Amino acid sequence: MVLSRGWAAFLVLVGIWTWAIWPRFAVAIWQDPRSWSTGEIGQGTPTGFLWVHALLIVASLAIGTAVGVLGVRGWWAARRRGSAEG
């Protein structure tokens, strides 16, 4: 598959966006009283609310990383194609 520089850059930006957004969301979930059995942050056992969101965050970061890596590889490949043609 041939990926243009524009699409490669878009994929890289999606990967960066993912890493900019999801860690902040993780902090918000951690600090939510619904994440803990006692309702106090960091006290008691984690609830299903925390586990479900943790799984969502991990999956999103993994997908964002994969997309970003594909974008970087696509950018390098497009750059090599451009230098080989010129």
Key structural traits:
mainly alpha, 2 helices, single chain, rod-shaped, 86 residues
Mean pLDDT: 94
Assess the beta-strand content as a share of residues. under 5%
The biggest beta sheet is recorded as:
none
Please state the structural category: mainly alpha
Uncertain ranges: none
Strand runs, count: 0
- What is the share of helical residues? over 70%
Oligomer: single chain
Order of helices and strands: HH
**What would you call the shape?**
rod-shaped
- Number of helical segments? 2
| N- to C-terminal distance | 21 Å
Summed up, the domain count is 1
Rg from Cα: 19 Å
Structure description:
With 86 residues, the chain is mainly alpha-helical. The chain has one domain (19-79). It has 2 helices and no strands. It has helices spanning 5-30, 48-85. Helix 1 (5-30) runs antiparallel to helix 2 (48-85). It is rod-shaped, with a radius of gyration of 19 Å. The chain starts with a helix and ends with a helix. The mean pLDDT is 94.
Summarize the structure.
Helices cover 74% and strands 0% of the residues.
Task: Give the helix/strand layout.
Layout: H1 5-30, H2 48-85
Helix pairs in contact: 1-2
